[in-house]
Write a structure and sequence with these properties.
six-stranded mixed β-sheet; three-stranded antiparallel β-sheet; single chain; alpha/beta; 14 helices; 387 residues
Length: 387
């Protein structure tokens, strides 16, 4: 009896060991959208990023390497520990192959570290910090949509070429260069900007540059108007999304200068994709939404070309393939993970200039990708090939 029982147990274990990998290999290829579903970045990423990712999956016919593709979503709540916990659970227990979006730099840096250790893909379509391609770069990390360098330095270079007639541009360059009158930092998700705005007002600077985004940016602009600051000083946004402009309204946002990787009304291709997105969400797409679609599509093409889900192999294939979609022409992914593409400088229209729904931006300049993004050798990424 005893020997028989042992034999059955051993056979059972052997079957389990043989069956488990087969189930994993036949299951869905999971892509995780880790985003802000409920707070100040929810309109810029949030559910819209999930929709954009699913659009890419649908356009790819829903499967890759003969397996169905599944989008899963998580809310990082703008907390690095929460985001890290979700990322680890996805990668270690739920067979997620790639993590996307992550519109919070602290959370993104945590996710970058985890995916680097696990040799899984992180496609940062929502994060801003340029450290993702600098000292915190990763062989399996790709910074897709924009970064802090492009939104500041690239914009300044573009403004300088607009000429002497563009007085506001010259003021912005002065304010962002060697004549900074001061700086004030506020906590994330701040309801009251009065003390910070009054500091800026008392500096008598020509320009007040707002380096916050989402709900914080919206509240800062509204309160600046209430204090009468905009009557004498110019506001410039360093990280502005079209969803922010929509929330503010053109009356409050008119004249604001900003840079972006995407605008829905830029050309026929952007309009065609955006109309599909708007039909599904009733919202105007941000550059995070557009970037998430593009990143998912490029990832799936690379998986198909590589014939594997192995993270480092797929990442290398993504780098080797040019990026071409409705928002990117002949983009290239550098060894440090930076996707280099053109950026755009816009000015928000006055209400009288807007001709139809979501007609918010006037294009001022196109910023070539090599000028918009930090040169790789200046970023401090330790792993790229020296060539």
């Amino acid at each position: 009896m005893t020997s028989c029982g042992i034999s059955i147990g051993v056979v059972g274990v052997a079957l389990a060991l043989l069956t488990a990998p087969a189930i994993a290999q036949d299951g869905p290829v999971k892509l995780g959208v880790l985003t802000d579903m409920s707070s100040l970045y929810a309109d810029n990423g949030g559910q819209g990023s999930v929709v954009a990712a699913q659009m890419a999956v649908d356009d790819f016919n829903g499967q890759v390497l003969g397996r169905p593709i599944q989008i899963v979503a998580g809310d990082h709540q703008n907390k690095a520990d929460v985001g890290a916990t979700i990322a680890r659970r996805w990668l270690e227990n739920e067979n997620v192959e790639v993590i996307l979006d992550v519109p919070n730099s602290a959370v993104a840096l945590a996710v970058q570290g985890i995916t680097r250790d696990k040799k899984k893909l992180f496609l940062a379509t929502g994060a801003a910090t340029s450290r993702l391609t600098g000292d915190e770069c990763s062989p399996t990390g790709i910074h897709w949509t924009y970064d802090t360098y492009a939104l500041s330095q690239g914009t300044t270079k573009a403004m300088s070429r607009l000429g002497a007639n563009e007085a506001d541009s010259r003021k912005v360059i002065d304010a962002m260069g060697g004549k900074v009158a001061g700086a004030a930092k506020h906590p994330i998700n701040t309801p009251d900007f009065s003390s910070f705005l009054l500091q800026a007002q008392s500096s008598k600077a020509d320009v007040i540059a707002l380096a916050d985004s989402g709900g914080d940016f919206i509240n800062a602009v509204k309160q600046a108007g209430e204090f009468g600051i905009t009557e004498r000083q110019k506001l410039v946004g360093l990280l502005v999304f079209i969803a922010d402009i929509h929330s503010l309204g053109l009356q409050s946002a008119q004249g604001l200068m900003l840079s972006s990787a995407f605008y829905w009304d830029l050309n026929d291709d952007t309009r065609a994709w955006s109309r599909r997105f708007i039909a599904k969400t009733q919202k105007v797409p941000t550059m995070i939404h557009a970037g998430t679609y593009g990143a998912v599509m490029h990832y799936l093409k690379a998986v198909q070309a590589a014939g594997t889900l192995d993270g480092p192999t797929v990442a290398a294939t993504m780098r080797a393939m040019p990026v071409n979609d409705f928002m990117t022409r002949n983009g290239r992914i550098r060894d440090d993970g930076r996707l280099v593409r053109d950026m755009y400088l816009f000015r928000v229209k006055a209400p009288a200039q807007s001709r139809y729904k979501f007609d918010y931006y006037e294009l001022l300049a196109t910023i070539p990708g090599d000028e918009a993004f930090r040169p790789m050798e200046q970023g401090g990424c330790p792993f790229p090939k020296k060539s």
